Amino acid sequence: MAIELVKAMVQNPGTCMACGGSPCDENGKQKPAIDLGVDINWGEGAYVCEDCVHLIVKFFGYEDLDTITKTREENERLRKENTDLSKKLEEQEVVLAKIREGSKAVRKVKAA
Known about the structure:
single chain; 112 residues; rod-shaped
């Protein structure tokens, strides 16, 4: 069996190998966990809870979910701002081109 994400720790002992807990959500339903896919103590499962997984990946330099969420939101805000500013710049370039054309026309008239 391979390592996989499971909705709940169903095999005994049903606790995380790292912290010994069995984390539940606010409704008392067990949170998802990683099933390590190994059999220990003749038939017991080996699980790592979501909280411990987040801690483990932080050790490897990955960001926590809050940081990732905030970064994604900031990235989306900046993309929108960039789109808005790019549109404004294009509009200003059109106006500037008209001003340049008008300036050329004025110089032509003055030269004549």
